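Q: Got a minute? One more chain.
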Amino acid sequence: MTKNRRSYLLLLPFLLAFGIAAHAPAFAAEEDVSQEDPARWYQGDDTAQLHYKTLVKEARAAGAQAMQECKSLKGADGKACRKDARANMNSDLARAKRILKAFANGDGWQFS
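A: Always. Here it is, folded:
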C-alpha cells in the first residue's frame, strides 16, 4: 500500500464523522409548539411547604416508576426489586421530611 493511499484511509473516518455530524440537525424531531406549557411548570415552590409537597410528589412518582419496572421481573428478582424500590422511596420521603424540619428550625436550605 502506498503512503499516499494510507493517508487517505486515515482521513476516511474523520470525513465520515464530519459528514454525519453536518447532517445531524436534519435527524432531529420537530417540536410540537401548537400547545402551550402547563401553567404548573411556572409555579414556584419557594415556601418550605410547597417545596416539601414537590419533593413528596417526585418521590412517589419515582417509586411508582420503579415499581412498574419491577413488574417484568419474577420470583426472587422481582421481590428484591420491589424491596429496593420501596426502600428508595422511603429514603426520599425521609429526606423530604428532614428538609421541611430544617426549615421549621430556621436552618433554611442547610440540610443533609
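A: The two ends are 64 Å apart (CA to CA).
Q: Perfect, thanks.
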